[in-house]
Amino acid sequence: MKELQFVLLEIANKTYIEEQTQLQRAIFRKYNKRNRPVRNDSEFLDVAVHVYLMHISVNQIEQTITLNGHLYMTWRDEFAVWEPTEYNGVRITMVKQWEIWVPELRITNSNSFLSIIEKFLFKWSRIEIYPTFSIKIGCAFDYSAYPFDTQSCALGIYTSQRMSAVQLSIYYNIQPTVQLGWGAQSEKVHISDWRLQSVTMNLSYFSNGKYTDERPIEAEELDSSWTVLHTWINLKRSAFCFGVAILLPSIISFLILIFSFLLPSCESAIYILIANLFFLGIFLEDLIAMLPPSIGRPPRIVHFCGSNLALTTLAIGLQFWLRYLIKRQNPAYGWTLHFLKVTRILLPNHWRFDELGVSENSNSSKISKSSLFRFFSLFSENISEIKNCNIIYMDF
Hints:
Blueprint: H1 2-27, E1 45-59, E2 64-76, E3 93-95, E4 105-107, E5 113-115, E6 119-121, E7 126-129, E8 132-138, E9 150-159, E10 166-170, E11 177-178, E12 190-191, E13 194-207, E14 210-212, H2 219-223, E15 225-237, H3 242-259, H4 266-290, H5 300-327, H6 334-346, H7 372-381, H8 383-388
Parallel strand pairs: 1-10, 1-11
Antiparallel strand pairs: 1-2, 2-7, 2-8, 3-6, 4-9, 5-8, 6-7, 9-15, 12-13, 13-14, 13-15
């Protein structure tokens, strides 16, 4: 009984293989793969396309995105036709990629690698292919809003033949399918430092060096136009450690710069500011390594860190100047008094020290260890006494 089943199964398989071979011989007996599969040359061939993405990789330095997935395409072949009843109900057959006509696809912004795996022929001469592809496309990234920047990059697909011969369309207006993981990772949307926001598809038409959304109608326009199928990949940066690794050290350094003027002596402020300057130098070295390349305007964090570095250097010079004013034995000049008058107006009351008086026999050496605000309050509260202590007002 088992031997009889094996013989019947062998006969059935042999019959199916023979029918497939006979069918393909009948189809390709007079088939010319160099000609468009339409009987009326004045009609265009519509090729429906659907993109299925399985992996996305972003390179910030090169400003490129690498896409991996499947490209589903289908069109009507009017020469590859058969009647299933004549071939024992065979409705589907697989053929080699070089045996039938396929559209010559091009990529607008990359030299792509496109590998075709298999093709299917259906009863009503519908051909379906879903080649696996790996394409690297060039993008124009703008990092001026780092780390809250959003980038968009398009995969542009078109055929080498004009719209009068071949036109691309979106398969049943279905947007691209994205599957970056399987099982528990089927909802995966994070790609390294990026979060995939959306993947959309739209058609545009290229003619006379310009893109337009209006479909050409006239025959002359169709002869000089191409259909371009754009697949837009929208990414948003997801910098989880930006606040701790970049923003917080910058704010701490800036606070050190501000509160250095509250220290009891200029010497202490100078030492701390110099240490802060070295801290900024070490921090900026790591920051430059983390930041993406500057395309367009630099990010705001770069402006903040640069301003912080410049203000720290200026504060060190200002502390040296204040130390010089405190320790000098010569009388003050007019521009110094102008500066002190401004500070007297702006200085809060709780920073003024009434117990610090200046007598006629006093000199600046008695306040050599005073803070900057004590220095200001001393002269602002006793401006009349300062004039009596040989402080000469001189106009420029």
